[in-house]
Amino acid sequence: MEKIKCDTEAVGSSIKSIFSERGDLDFAEQLWCKMKCVSSYQELIACFTLVLESRECGEIQPWIHHGSGSLLSKLIQQSYHGKMEAVSLTGITPVQMLLEIGLDKMKKDYVSFFIVSSRIYGYCSSQAGMAFHS
To answer: What's the CA gap between 52 and 28, in Å, rounded?
Structure first.
């Protein structure tokens, strides 16, 4: 009975590590974690305005994953080279920007999940193989 409890705890720990927050979140992904709960369109505009103006003035130096596809990520990457195109935060643009950074984060989360789970599967398979040959 003690062995089953120990194995259950190990599996629980593995599952928890698979579903835990990635440690390599870039600026846009961290921003998504804060902004996904904005309560109004005006708040959304205010947040993006603050971010873009702060970056333009050099007050923040955000890090973005290479290959991030969101408009916000592209604007920040442009700013690394001293040029950031102007974006009108009107209409659906702010909502679209928020959705894009959320989708980018979700893609990276799933890739990370599959990499971690394949490593765990490989480890478990090798352990089972060793037990079988013993």
So the answer is: 12
Copy the structure tokens of residue 115. Answer: 């990499």
Q: Which of 114, 102, 103 is nearest to 18 (CA)?
A: 114
Model pLDDT, residue 94: 97
Low-confidence ranges of the chain (pLDDT < 70): 1-21, 119-134
| 8 A C-beta contact, residue 108 and residue 9 | no
Cβ pair 87, 45 in contact under 8 A: no
C-beta separation of 101 from 70 below 8 A = yes
Tally of CA atoms within 13 A in the half-sphere of 17 that contains its CB:
11
Is 57 within 8 Å of 94 (Cβ atoms)?
no
What is the distance of C-alpha 115 from the center of its chain?
A: 15
Please report the pLDDT score of residue 38 as a whole number: 94
Q: What is the pLDDT of residue 27?
A: 95
